[in-house]
Amino acid sequence: MIIAIDGPAASGKGTLARRLAAHFGLRHLDTGLTYRAVAAALLAQGLPLGDEAIAVEIARRLDLSHMDRALLSAHETGEAASRIAVLPALREELVRLQRAFAKAPPGAVLDGRDIGTVVCPDAGVKLYVTAAPEARAKRRTAEMLSQGKEADFASVLEDLKRRDERDQSRTVAPLRQAADAHLLDTTEMDIETAFRAAVDIVTAARAS
Ligand SMILES: Nc1ncnc2c1ncn2[C@@H]1O[C@H](COP(=O)(O)OP(=O)(O)O)[C@@H](O)[C@H]1O
Ligand SMILES: Nc1ccn([C@@H]2O[C@H](COP(=O)(O)OP(=O)(O)O)[C@@H](O)[C@H]2O)c(=O)n1
């Protein structure tokens, strides 16, 4: 079975995806990391973010089993990832890797922006996880502070809104809720409540 999870930045989709994968015995791929890994490589080598051919070349060499969220979590990496995520040939290359991961047994949970709409349109269950921008900025700020990084709520909020706008308005695979996705608004939910709600949705979908 494939579970597709999409949603805006810091909505909690990664946390849910990880826990659902463990609960249902599936593999997990955070597809945001694939965009972050390419962006981090470009930044590290001082290469331009707009050069599609170079980005595709880096994507071809990606090893999905060696992507470390901690190493790729920097705020600037997320910002650069959303800038290169508009490049069609790069998306094509990454989607190819993501689909291959999704299809291998026993199934997988993938989270990102276009999983239910583009990467796995036939997924058994689709969730669209969201929360109010202020709630998401509060979570991301707390996360950064807990990692010993500097974080200012107002600028985190501004950055998240700008990234959401870019992700929703790009021409190729924009962030949007698939017609058959279940909406999970976690603004008023803690992690445990959101997880329980997601398990109920998946369990009901598997039974039908
Ligand atoms: N429902 C929730 N309530 C409070 N904090 C949450 C909730 N879901 C996730 N978080 C926290 O918010 C931060 C961002 O969550 P994450 O799963 O990484 O989001 P995303 O993958 O959508 O960017 C993490 O620190 C996570 O522990
Ligand atoms: N399936 C995906 C996943 C991420 N992305 C892009 O990659 C960026 C970083 O994604 P992420 O999931 O790591 O970001 P957070 O939500 O964790 O902050 C997003 O802002 C998107 O622009 C995408 O275009 N498609």
UniProtKB/TrEMBL annotation:
It catalyses: dCMP + ATP = dCDP + ADP; CMP + ATP = CDP + ADP. Pfam families: Cytidylate_kin. SUPFAM superfamilies: P-loop containing nucleoside triphosphate hydrolases (SSF52540). ATP binds at residues 7-15. Its EC number is 2.7.4.25. GO terms for biological process: pyrimidine nucleotide metabolic process. InterPro entries: Cytidylate_kin, Cytidylate_kinase_dom, P-loop_NTPase. One of its GO terms (cellular component) is cytoplasm. Keywords: ATP-binding, Cytoplasm, Kinase, Nucleotide-binding, Transferase. It is found in: Cytoplasm. Residues 3-200 form the Cytidylate kinase domain. GO terms for molecular function: ATP binding; dCMP kinase activity. CDD domains: CMPK (cd02020). Belongs to the cytidylate kinase family. Type 1 subfamily. NCBIfam families: cmk. This is Cytidylate kinase. It comes from Pannonibacter tanglangensis.
